């Protein structure tokens, strides 16, 4: 059963929203065309820290200003075993005002509203297609000012969620309903990439790929108090990634290195020196570390120490691990986009080091 209460309004993050006017204009255009057969799915892609979640938030604010009901869910790596987890995350937080505006939300299948009674009975595994049809039929009956469902970190989504999204892409909704998903390109399962790309080809999906921010935007809007040369150096180190830029900027203003040794995972609220909350980049890295195998963590740490000298052979030498095992560990860490091959031949760099 859905929980009914007064849900908090979607609001802008505390982080500044910089220079995404072109992307916001495209999202506004989708809202304008929503009732006229425009795309029913928006696919926001980009690397970690590039601003996908922040753009989702900005879109939610704009959609709500137009009178739309806005719900938001997030996929999580550790909940991949839970069917329809990001959808349930969104639909479980339905408020009274939301139900008044979109009464059809009460008719959604129980599993999409956070109830797992059907999962224990096996209904969804035996009649997945029927569940997808039922979901599409319910959403297709939405009228009024419309519904926007924002799904973040979809690269971690469970298989059932990916199947449902694929169905909704292949059978576009003829209703004022918009699904907006955000994902990391390099970590997206092939089945999701294929479904979204097919939707782009048919016009059901609008893809917005976020690239680096421009130097002028970062420096003028975020670092006006810094000498131009120092601000330019920070921008160059960040490579235009807004999370990296803000983290380096915070470190500079606080006169401390941004990536000093991390605190124990049991103390996630503190920064590297115990002097305050973690920066966004520190939180991002620490969130990824628990999922790594012990050898993968050793390789990541050794690569950070070696810097420009990191090669599979050198990593094997200092960790006393066969090169073949080093290469496999590197492959797994690179799949998480924590490392990337360096421009120099055979060199490896920790993601964010340059």
Q: Could you provide a short overview of the structure?
A:
The protein contains 16 helices and 7 strands.
Describe, in plain words, how this protein is organized in 3D.
- The chain has 16 helices and seven strands.
- It is 45% helix and 10% strand.
- Strand 6 (339-341) and strand 7 form a beta hairpin.
- The strands form two sheets. The chain has a five-stranded parallel sheet with strand order 2-3-4-1-5, sandwiched between helices. The protein has a two-stranded antiparallel ribbon with strand order 6-7.
- The protein is globular.
- It folds into two domains: 21-209, 3-Layer(aba) Sandwich (Rossmann fold), CATH 3.40.50.300; 292-354, Arc Repressor Mutant, subunit A, CATH 1.10.10.10.
Please describe the structure with a list of short key phrases separated by commas or semicolons.
354 residues; alpha/beta; 2 domains; P-loop_NTPase; AAA_16; 7 strands; disordered N terminus; Arc Repressor Mutant, subunit A; Rossmann fold; ATP-binding; adenylate cyclase activity; globular; two-stranded antiparallel ribbon
Named CATH topology of the largest domain: Rossmann fold
- The rough form would be described as globular
What's the helix count?
A: 16
Q: What's the SSE pattern?
A: HEHEHHHHHEHEHEHHHHHHHEE
Strand order of the largest sheet: 2-3-4-1-5
SS strand fraction: 5-15%
Oligomer: single chain
Q: What is the CA-based Rg, rounded?
A: 22 Å
* Largest sheet geometry: 5 strands, parallel
Number of domains: 2
Structure class: alpha/beta
Number of DSSP strand runs: 7
Per CATH, the superfamily of the largest domain is: P-loop containing nucleotide triphosphate hydrolases
Domain Orc1-like AAA ATPase: 16-180
InterPro entries: AAA_16 (IPR041664), P-loop_NTPase (IPR027417)
Keywords: ATP-binding, Nucleotide-binding
GO molecular function: adenylate cyclase activity; ATP binding
